[in-house]
Amino acid sequence: xxxxxxxxxxxxxxxxxxxxxxxxxxxxxxxxxxxxxxxxxxxxxxxxxxxxxxxxxxxxxxxxxxxxxxxxxxxxxxxxxxxxxxxxxxxxxxxxxxxxxxxxxxxxxxxxxxxxxxxxxxxxxxxx
Length: 128
Known about the structure:
Blueprint: H1 2-125
């Protein structure tokens, strides 16, 4: 029995030693777990800051897009106004050209008529 007792005591000592090693390793694991939790918190904070930055960037981009859209709309309106003014100027020019042509025909007719009247006057005066 003393032999069995020695074996049991040796086994108990080995168990105690293994338990101490296990507790030491558990302490190390807990330290690593604490470091991991801190790292996770830092990552979460970084992710939140990144999300906030992304939201600000999205808002800035939308503001810039609205500004560009307003500029494009203004350019579009300017083009429409300029086309309208150009068309009006073209119509005025065409109307003026038609008026000049009509006036030219009238002047030409009057010139022929004056020429005939001058001829008639010369004939009446006996000059012709």
